[in-house]
Structure formats: C-alpha cells, structure tokens
Amino acid sequence: MLRAARGFSLVELILVIVLLGIVSTLSLSYLSGGAEMYAQSADRERLLSQSRFVIERLTRELRNALPNSVRISTDGLCVEFIPLKFAGRYTELPGVNAATALDMTFFSGQSSSQSAFSSLIAEGDFITVYPTQPEHYYSKDRTLELKGAIAADESSGQRVTLEFNSVTAAGFPQASPNQRFFVWSSPVRYCLLTESNSQTPNSYHIYRFSHYGVLAQEPQTTDLERESGSLMAIDLVFIPGQPLEPFTYSDGVLKRSSVVHVVLSFSSNFADDLFFNQEIHIPNVP
Q: pLDDT tens digits, residue range 1-48?
C-alpha cells in the first residue's frame, strides 16, 4: 500500500514528457501543413480569379475596338484602343459629295432605328470614315466632331442627317469603299505600372484608364497618374528586356485580322506564377 501511494518516478515523468513532445510535434506539423495548403489554395484561387477577370475584360473590350485604332507603347507596357459606339453606312459624305452634313440611311426598314441611334450618340462624339491607320483617329485626319443635331426623315423614319461642329472645305478627305462610318467618344488604355512600395522586384499592377481625351502622341506609362485609373489586377511580374513584352500588335493581312498579343504573368505569395499567353483578333475592315 505504501509503495503504490508514492506516485510516478522521475524516469516515468520524463518518458511522459518526451512522448507528449513527440505527439505535439507531429500534431503541429500536421496542422501547419494543412494550414499552409489552405493558404496556398486560397492564394491560387485569388490569383486565378483576378487574372481571369482582367484577361476577360481586356479581351471583350479589344474585340469591340475600332479597326486600326490599337496603339502599343514603346516599352510594351501599355495598349491603347478606341471602343466602338456605333457603326453604319452613309449615303452622302461631307467633302466627297459636296455636302455639309452626313446623310445616313438605315437599311433595316424599321422606324425605331432612328430613335435607337439617337440614344447611342451624344454631342461631342467623333465620327471617322475609312480609318486605315491610328493617326486617322488620334490626329483626327479623317475624323469630325458631332454637333449633336439629328434630322430625321419623318416620312420613312429610316433616314437621318448628322451635323458637325466644324466642317472644313475638305470635309472627309476620302470616302469609304463600303460607305461605312464609325462613331466613338474616347480611347481606353490598359497599362502596367510599377509600385514604389512593393517588396517584390519587377512587380507591376495593371490599371485601366478612360475619359482622358484624345492624345496624338503614342501612349506612355510615364504620363499617367494612378489616381485617374481603375486598378484591375495586382502582382504582375515583368522583367524588362524579355523577348515577350506584355502587349504587342500585328497589323492585319489578307489571311487574318489584326492581332493583339497579350502575355501576362501573375505571381503568388508562394513562388507560383500564373502565365497567360493569348491572341486577341480584331476586325480590321475600315
């Protein structure tokens, strides 16, 4: 009875402490591994979600860009293009048909076409005819500013006339072979900009810029303020001097449309990179 009441010996206590330490180490290793796997999975999901968002948004907008309106910055970090608001066919053209306004006929035969067209355009929009190069938009070589007055043929509801703020004696210098015209308001840019407070070298964020006006000069990353843009994605990696720049452009040829080549690399917090290499085809029929 006295021997059983003495309790544990020192050797037994040490063995229990050692066994508890081994069990705790194994449990902690198992739990930390599970936590790390969860953190990696959540980070990959975040990276995949934001990368898909910016790629899908950029692809949709570029596919709706005006023909021959894409410009790339010299460093390949900016792509600029003009979204299409409306396209149609005209019957008379200022400067070509000795007219002072653009006459357009709707071929759908529906009287609602004129009212639908009126809701899509606004005073200050631009109309371009037969654009074969970016300068025809940005330098306004073949572009006039819309005055906002829309005269409709009440008898049929199919014919409308557009007036411009200033129609020079030349008007539009050249007619479109298919009598096509394009209505637009402002260019859009997607640019990769470095972050000064980033701890990762060659780390970039991608921004979307709009409503900054029509600039004749080529797009540059140095003339943009982050405050005026919308942040689209973070944690992009690009090393200057690489053979594949983020944005490149190829003019259209007989066998294919013009192509914007997008190469974006997204970096996670666990040294995993998500790489996108995509070609976006743009209709190039002016």
A: 455 556 667 777 788 888 888 887 777 776 666 667 767 777 778 788
Q: What is the DSSP string of 216-267?
A: SSPP-STT--GGGSEEEEEEEE--TT-SS-SEEEE--BTTB-EEEEEEEEEE
Find, among 238, 249, 223, 228, the residue nearest to 192 by Cα.
Answer: 238
**Distances from the Cα of 125 to the Cαs of 68, 81, 83, in angstroms?**
18, 16, 12
How far apart CA 121 and CA 149 sit, in angstroms, is: 10
Q: Rounded CA gap, 43 and 231, in Å? A: 19
Please classify residue 199 by burial: count the beta carbons closer than 10 Å to its beta carbon, then call 0-12 exposed, 13-18 middle and 19+ buried.
Answer: exposed
Contact 121, 146 (CB under 8 A): yes
Using a 10 angstrom Cβ sphere, with 0-12 exposed, 13-18 middle and 19 or more buried, the burial of residue 146 is buried
pLDDT digits (tens, 9 = 90+) for 225-246: 777 888 998 888 887 777 788 9
Nearest to 204 by CA among 234, 244, 240: 234
Residue 105 pairs with which residues in a beta bridge? 159
